[in-house]
Amino acid sequence: MPGVIWLSHSLVVLLPVALLGVVLLGATMLFWWQAPAWSKIPRAQKRREEALRRMAALAERLRQQEPELDPKPILELPLEKLVQKLLADELSLESVLCSYLEEAMKVHQEVNCLTDFLDECEEQLQALKKLKKSERGLLYGVPISLKDVYDCMGHDSTCGLAQFLEKPAAKDGVIVKVLKAQGAIPFVKTNISQTLLSFDCSNPIYGQTLNPQNLKKTSGGSSGGEGALLAKGGSILGMGTDTGGSIRIPASFCGACGIRVTGYRLSNSGVASAVKGRKAVVTVAGPLAWDVESLALCLRALLSEHMHRLDPTVPFLPFREEVYSSNRPLRIGYYESDGFTQPSPSMARAVKLTSRLLRDAGHQVIPFSVPRTEYAFFHLYTGSLLADGGASLLEKLKGDIVDPSMKNTVTSLRLPNSLKRFLAWIWKYFEPRASQSLERLCGVGTPKKLWEQHTAVEEYQQEFIAKWRSLDLDVLLSPALDPAFYVGYPAKVQASSFYLGLYNLLNFPAGVVPVTTVTPQDEKELAFYRGYYRDHVDKSFQEAVRGSVGLPVAVQCIALPWEEELCLRFMKEVETLVKSKMEPK
């Protein structure tokens, strides 16, 4: 009988919702035919095709200058070695740019990761050649890829939205200016998820980006184009942004390294966003690369007085070399589960492996538990991301095609608040997480309620720091989110990304380092995965990570706010220990 009662409730609730969905879908489709998307998207797709043809033409011109060029040795160089050779004139700027242009086009053909070619890279290369050796920056001659959202003069920053098309940036953003001043050569822009609020990588303008390790899987998002391009060797250094794991998830899914910095340590001026003005959960910039040393080199270049002069809201805090290069033993907290989403077998094993290696290397490793995870996710994180009930987000989607990765969220946001609350009341008996999600999608409400929300976030941050301090921790080790999900599944299991989103809420620097790959034993153990709630989200998570043998698995390294150098030092330690374990004796 309970099953019949549950089914009858479901039919009563879901039938009107289904009918409402049909009406909404019909209205959406009718509007679509009259929408800006109808004309703008095909034009944008044509512009991309033309840009990629110009990219191929430049590669061909550069190839003609060095017909005997073998790109393989160049593409195998780590960033630090590449810069050394460029500064010493052991490699020409043309040979390096040509190598990465050719490789990026090959990767794009396989995974669909590029959105634009930055033609001005050729002019910039010529300008760099005129510099005296003493004028060359820390990233002299390095081709660098940029997430779609970074403003480059004359190019769109779309956020995957039709509304942002045909509005080219009037000037380079601050980070782009600093990178160029340090000698980097931005040469492509990369794909993102629509609105940047999904950890898939798909939008109606440029389509789906795939994971180069397994083409049935997503590259992650929202910086998924960066993750895919880097993992396959089409870029050596890229810039992403991170609101809830948007750097760390693609890096983790694709086998790269990435770090989100403390909010406001890097400039956000000239970085597009679908929803601006969020204070409790801040979108931040950060690099992705093949290794930790490359991330450190990028931050050395960015954390300059130049950035502070261009954007005085960014504090002048130069990179602290003494912290990064220290070798003192660390006191490290760790946890294998956040108590909210049961980790996959490979996620838990990665933390066990890493904590054991750290302990054997002489570090103190202490168990840690995350306080009130469910409360933090539903009441603080979701409530802060969509404090206005999604009104700003829906405004940006007017006249647009809603991507499949965003359809569930958008459909829920469009429901009247009274219906959301009614459904939440019904679902709390058999889908408690869905119930709480719908309740929070109603928005925070009045300015007073918004102030109370911000206060609650600050109180939780202080609670978390107090627990950290009580254990006298230097850093914290946690699971990342692994392995890569099948395309389409991130929309079904958004809550699982809170392993990473927690540190956006707390505004802590956090980075990911690959430490292992999925084993056949992990796959066998996944068959017994049930989750903590045993609801449709847990079931979808199990399905999402199946068939992943051989895919990369990372761990997450976390430090307190403004301690990026310590976070990188910890990441470097993990990377070094893992590599030494893998080397033959």
Automatic annotation (TrEMBL):
Entry-linked Gene3D superfamilies: Amidase signature (AS) domain
Coiled coil: 111-138
Domain of life: Eukaryota
Active-site residues annotated for this sequence: K147, S222, S246
GO BP, sorted A to Z: lipid catabolic process
GO molecular function, one term: fatty acid amide hydrolase activity
SUPFAM superfamilies with a match to the protein in the record: Amidase signature (AS) enzymes
Keyword field: Coiled coil, Hydrolase, Lipid degradation, Lipid metabolism, Membrane, Phosphoprotein, Transmembrane, Transmembrane helix
Transmembrane segments: 12-33
E.C. number: 3.5.1.99
Enzymatic reactions: (11Z,14Z,17Z)-eicosatrienamide + H2O = (11Z,14Z,17Z)-eicosatrienoate + NH4(+); (9Z)-octadecenamide + H2O = (9Z)-octadecenoate + NH4(+); N-(5Z,8Z,11Z,14Z-eicosatetraenoyl)-ethanolamine + H2O = ethanolamine + (5Z,8Z,11Z,14Z)-eicosatetraenoate; N-tricosanoyl-taurine + H2O = tricosanoate + taurine
Family of the protein in this entry: Belongs to the amidase family.
PANTHER family on file: FATTY ACID AMIDE HYDROLASE, FATTY ACID AMIDE HYDROLASE-RELATED
Protein's name according to its UniProt entry: Fatty-acid amide hydrolase 1
Protein species of origin: Bos taurus (Bovine)
Source taxonomy: Eukaryota, Metazoa, Chordata, Craniata, Vertebrata
Gene expressing this chain: LOC513210
